Fold:
Amino acid sequence: MIPELGQFALVLALLLAIAQGVLPIVGAWRGNGALMAVARPAAAGQAVFVFAAMGILIHAFLAYDFSVAYVADNSNLALPWYYRVTAVWGAHEGSMLLWVFILNVWTVALAALSRHLPQPFVARVLGVLGLIGVGFLAFILFTSNPFLRELPMPADGGDLNPVLQDPGMTFHPPVLYMGYVGFSVAFAFSIAALLGGELEQSWVRWARPWTNVSWAFLTMGIVAGSWWAYAELGWGGWWFWDPVENASFMPWLVGVALIHAQAVTEKRGSLPAWTVLLSLFAFSLSLLGTFLVRSGVLTSVHAFASDPRRGLYILGFLVVVIGGSLLLYAIRAPKVATGKAFAALSRETGIMVANLLFTTAAAMVLLGTLFPLIGDALNLGRVSVGPPYFGFLFVLLMAPAVLLLPFGPYLRWGKAEGRQLTAMALRSGIAAIVCTVAAVFFAEGRLRAIAGVAGAAWVAAGTLAYVVKRWREMPRGRRYPAEMAGMLVAHFGVALFLIGVMLSESLSTERDVRMAPGQAESVGGYQFRFDGVRETTGPNWRADEGVVTVFRDGTPMATMHPQKRTYSRGQVQTESAIDPGLFRDIYVALGEPMDSGDVEGAWALRLYHKPFVRWIWLGGLFMMAGGFLAAAERRFRAKKAAATAGAPAKEQLA
Amino acid sequence: MNPTRKRRLAVVISVVAAAAIAVGLTVFALQRNMSYLFTPSQVQEGQATQYPTFRLGGMVKAGSIQRAKDSLKVSFIVVDDAGAMPVEYTGILPDLFRDNQSVIATGRMADGRFIAGEVLAKHDENYMPKELKDAMAKAHQKRNIDDTAMKDTPK
Structure:
């Protein structure tokens, strides 16, 4: 009975979403206050029912209700309770429900924190969010219902995909979706501005913290995903240019462009049409990303099988959202697009150039990701695009961005002076050269490592020089407003990320070896002794667990236990063992027994030594922190008393 | 020409130039990194001869996996309904690799054998990569073989 209540709640939520999507927009168009006033209660009602549906699905998992097909497919009696909760978003249907759930979290936060904005504008924003909700709720109800019954009820369920049974996976999807869905706020805001035919700077100011927070969440989600791939997939890579990763990376790249473009529009009134266009793109790519991952239209190591009705619905939905918003943009943009002019050498130009680099990078990733579909349509045969395509073009596009980055804060709005720029370039240039010379001695002639150190030193020195300049020139208390602090932290994160990527890529030693018990191998200055394999068990798996003792110069420094798990439904999963460190990771994974009849004998092992690999995620976390910090800027929540609770409350809700 | 027009012209020219470079580099990178998928029977028909490296997709023939005694070298046979191709690989195979699993190997031909540099196994038990399914179905149709054999194996 309870699962039917969940479905019923979703139906009611759909009806309320329709009311929220249609009535306020009509009201704003007709100038009808009563209709506009429907927006908030309808949003609240929708949220209540969606939260109820989510609660019911979680309850079904916790109560082992295997009469629900989705629960039976993705959990079983032996699965620990925390993985039964995360199994809610372990497959397609639940992921879609999670999406709608998070959409409602954002909508409620927005409804609560937008009282100081003009009523027609808020009505349109909430209306657009309602329409997005309609699209997703209808998709769930008609094609992907998580509450479908399976009768007769099986005695025990299947299993949650073992690669998802990992702590990193418990919060990767929700955080990633917080980012995806968060861009719907910027999208709704842009559509509202286009519908209303005017774009006020104060509205952009209001939208900025929302965009920053969602971008920060998206960053966190990608970092978590990358970390999870590194630890869980058992081959020690942190990025594969897999379609699923690209799906989250495209909105991220456009998001970088968007948060900078919004700053220009808010502070200077320049580039309004571009800002609006970018917010349409950011959300469209988020939608595309959600569907690419879950629909399985692309070949990917972790896409899920699909059914054709879903594909058709998704295609229709994307056409309506992307086509509709671009059409509206084409009709209305000339009306809102009266931006202020700026000089060729100015911060506006700097941001514009960076914007172009990032959007081109996103377009390049999009082309490479969708190319198999294009090749299919043009009858080129079964084509896929290899990682070197992305690597080559991405480095090419990001190199100028890295080169330009330290100049950013020094560029004045409107018109910049050349003198300060040369002074900065001189200082960072010297720092970069000194670090490069130092790196030449350590990197043993590996060019990528040296280039990475040079780039990182250039960015870090330029950013730190600006920190010092502010410290000297500004009075206490006004040195680093939150927005600027966020920018500096995020830019510094870029330097850390560069170090991590370039050094770990070029200095890592990776060896796949065959080892008999007692045998030792040397990798990256460490000695690894394989002490054989023993058997061990967990709540829903049994495993062969290897024992590997790591020595440095003859002294033992770590004992590592990589596992080869066999889950209760027969799936095999490698659990790597990692000895983490700020300057290097040691990574050991079990391959397979060389003779499957003799697990006591020789095994294939992966022995990796990965210097600085942790800096990749550290850099990502700095960027994320920068995003949150900038969103806390006081200017964003000043104005009226009603708005004072703005940013901090939102972050709590988030 | 007045200064405004001059500036606009400069902007337009630089945008066009940048776009041309971007398109050129993209095409270059795409051409170098496109890789085609063939099934064993397609390879035996000679469809893959013009590609130095390509991807080979099919099922691992039951009982064909053989390991070397003293290294990580492993050999197995990949089959579709009408063809078979011996594959050699040195390294650690993915978790899901076993008899009768669908796999995609990237590599090149040498002496009638496929030398793989990378082997991927399908992600979960019931799922076959769509492009592999399509490629195998296509290889099928050509021979007018009953299509039922091609359906995914039931759970």
The first strand of chain B starts at residue 34 and ends at 38. The helical segments of chain B are 3-33, 40-44, 130-143.
